[in-house]
Fold:
Amino acid sequence: MKSSSIIFIVIIAVIVAVVLYSLSGGQSNEEYDAVLTKEREQKDLFMKNNEGSPFVNDSTFSGLNYFPPDLKYRINAKLIPVENKKVVTLGTSDGLEQKYTEYAHAEFDLDGIHNRLLILEILDTGPYRGQLFLAFADGTSANETYGAGRYLDVKKTPGSQSILLDFNESYNPYCAYSETYSCPLPPRENILEVEIKAGEKSYRQ
Structure:
């Protein structure tokens, strides 16, 4: 093999490595797994001990249930801002309604399926006003995961053409644990065909 060909192959390998490294947030698989595991342990402690937790008086609580960490589901999605924003009304688990404003669409391909999620902006007055809200359901819903869908926290990225969707951090709303909570349901367009085997599973599955 010519030396020029070897150099070309090495350059391509370096580029691929850099891209994979950047998509993982600059972390190795082991480092990412360790950070995510620690976050989950801290959440279990919060759920067990905090007064605002649905499990604070539940002596049987032994921790939430998760898929193993998988960088496949840490996705850099295309971000498409909504030009003519409208108010969106979502139904809730207890039959009420909550209003949001359209913010942007996040598009990505996974397992050969093109997906498009609507990201909303919170309208309610209070400390969460202006923050983003992303609720989704997928092919695992009502089987491995909570039937009414899961949430994923995302941050505003003004001017950016992409957004990080780390589905390993997706979580159940509190109504997955207790009917006393009111939780917004995903908009119809956020019910995905693809299976998102990442993040929190159904409790005690």
Residues 65-205 form one domain. Residues 47 and 53 are 5 Å apart (CA to CA). Helices lie at 3-23, 29-49.
